[in-house]
Amino acid sequence: MTERPQHGSARPGGRTARTRAAVLAAALHELDETGFAGLTLDKLAARSGVHVSTIRRRWRSVEGVVVDLMAQHSKTIATPDSGEFRQDLYELAEAIAGFHAQPRSRNLVEAMVAAAAYDPHIADLVRGAFIARTEVVTALVHRAVDRGEVPPGTDAYEVIAALSAPFYYRLLIMRGSIDERLVRASAEAAYRAARGGVFGGEGAGG
């Protein structure tokens, strides 16, 4: 059996791309106006002009649309390349903070987590979206290894996970705001741990 393409991956450009863009834009507006609780396939169809059966066939549910939207929206977080590992981590932490400072971004994250708790399929999609996004920004860790700033064998994925985790704890568990202190503490903790070989490399010191 042919494996079904991931959301948004089939036939880039043309009608498929326009359909995806219309539905995701509709979802973003609906989340801004009513939040996740008020989001329905019928509302998405009405706002986007895409037939509800098409949305259901491609995304299966409103949760599937939200996960796809989050994957697209998170691409606005660029991968820093300052030439210095500590600065790259700080800039990435700043970008994550800026992303989650937007109410729509918080709505997206909360909607995904809520949906994943009740639907294993959505949980898989959420996990895949976060893994894919994390792998993109691991480039800054690989560059640091190449420059000799962190030990060879450092697990780049774990470095980025350690940097990011405090933001989600603050948002989803503590229900608090993100501030500059959290940005600096998260970046510095990840930096020192990576330099010290906590993430799989042999200690580099410093």
TrEMBL record:
SUPFAM superfamilies: Homeodomain-like, Tetracyclin repressor-like, C-terminal domain
DNA-binding region: 40-59
Residue span(s) of domain HTH tetR-type: 17-77
Keywords (A to Z) from UniProt: DNA-binding, Transcription, Transcription regulation
Top-rank lineage group of the source organism: Bacteria
PANTHER family reported in the protein's UniProt record: HTH-TYPE TRANSCRIPTIONAL REGULATOR RUTR, TETR-FAMILY TRANSCRIPTIONAL REGULATOR
Protein name: TetR/AcrR family transcriptional regulator C-terminal ligand-binding domain-containing protein
Higher taxonomy: Bacteria, Bacillati, Actinomycetota, Actinomycetes, Kitasatosporales
